[in-house]
Amino acid sequence: MEKFNLAPVGVVRHLEGKTFLEIYPEFAEAIEGLNEGDWIKLILWFHESDNPERRKILKVHPYNNPENPLTGVFATRSPVRPNPLALYTVQIHRIEGNTLFIDWIDAHDGTPIVDIKIFVERLDCPIQREVDEKEVDIWGARQIGGINLIPRRNEHLDELEEVKPEEYTALIVELGEKTTYLNAAELVELINALNEIYEELPGEIKDKLKSLGKSL
């Protein structure tokens, strides 16, 4: 069986009633782009559950309560599993250098951090999806300020003859962890509204935009 190497990028710390993520200096640049208030997916390695005996345990009593029936670990959040990975969704409350302050979590002090990913409602709460992931045009996505604009693929136009603009989801808009969907009619309304806002900009600003090649 192929083996994988995981390099911890930091550790969880509990100190003086505070919980924070201490990111190692060599990974500090990876923090850039995270902001206070952001929600993140935190992937940890439960090192205290990492031994040959515990890795062989494939069924547990959920919540460590013997009154609960034995259940396969893949159907639980138990720390005892073949690979003792742990997954948390937490909010960043403060960032100081390479330290991210979060709410309390039950990981022990010194627990290795395997990875951090931003929380994306569209991906992490798939029950709310309006567009099948295979129809999302990731390569055509644009990031403007803190907004992600992700268009829908249009490879099945022959199937859309009977679909009304109000029924066709055309654009996915992500702002932080929040996701909203615009149908084709709403997309046109948005474009018109943005054009109106642009026209109301001071003439001096529009002239400077033109000199930068950013005018409409």
TrEMBL record:
Keyword terms? S-adenosyl-L-methionine
The record's NCBIfam families line, in alphabetical order, gives: tRNA_TsaA
Q: Which organism is it from?
A: Palaeococcus pacificus DY20341
Report the domain of life of the source organism.
Answer: Archaea
Q: Which PROSITE patterns match?
A: TSAA_1, TSAA_2
Family label: Belongs to the tRNA methyltransferase O family.
Q: Which InterPro entries does this one have?
A: TrmO-like_N, UPF0066_cons_site, YaeB-like, YaeB-like_sf, YaeB_N_sf
| Domain TsaA-like: residue ranges | 6-128
> A Pfam family this protein belongs to?
TrmO_N
Protein name listed in UniProt:
TsaA-like domain-containing protein
